[in-house]
Amino acid sequence: MPFAVEVSDLEKRFGKFVAVNGVSFAVEEGEVFGFLGPNGSGKSTTIRMLCGLLLPSRGSGTVAGLDITRQAELIRTQIGYMPQLFSLYTDLTVGENLRFYAGLYSVPTARARERIEQVTGRLELTGMMDRLAGTLSTGWRQRLALASSVLHQPPILFLDEPTSGVDPVTRRLFWEFIDDLAEDGATIFVTTHVMDEAEHCTRLAMMHYGNLIAQGTPEQMRREYVGSIVEVRAEPLWDAVEALIAADDVGEVALFGDALHAECTPEVTDPEGAIRQVLQSAGIAVGSATGVEPTMEDVFVSLARSHERPDEVGRDST
Questions:
Q1: What is the pLDDT of residues 263-295, one digit of tens each?
Q2: 197 SS3 class
């Protein structure tokens, strides 16, 4: 199967500042490929290079079989792109923006009307057509931006933090819509810093300070990069954190709601017992210590702690 996106040793520098540090990965056609990492990890810079909006400093890449340095204009005819920052016209209505972008993508008039009706219905925008885009809340703006990016039914869709700033209901709507697009054969490349959204993706690549630190399916990453996780409820909570961090048998400790997730080192045969012993020895009352399946947040915490920021690598602004 040909790759929809393929990059090798891709790098972007701004002077001495390294935003993306020699990343390599490939995305198969029809995948929902998640590009994960916190703000500042290089996700948006990478996506801009793939969309032909930034030239790489080094390395190579193709999108839809087209070279990202030599065929940027052609690439833009094969993709949809939803940037992280709202970039539609705030002085136009929702309907006017959609009609404008349908024309920009050369969608025939009759087909444009049909597509606008389909997409606005699916994203529940129908009742907002006469509203000025500039008066919309963040969630409605994101719906409009997503609708505009798919009017021409692109085979490859780049979504940069599409759920940023939206409410849980809209987030669920977006991911249902993304899943539907993938079922219809589109390749989706989506960036996010919300780790639980990774569960919606076929495969993942995780960025940290401009470096690609892990790739794989969600299940592979949970299995390969995290040890035994114990969810701990204890009082006082911060004393529990300090005691576990100081323990030889505990690798990573992270707050998880009103509890802690503690990762035990591989040689520990009874993680729950080991955690209880550490806390009780420190005089901390243990409410519960229960083994749980690791989350993608656990995966990221474990990976990030083992990949400290290199001195020569900076961060981009997104």
A1: 988 889 999 999 999 999 999 999 999 999 988
A2: helix
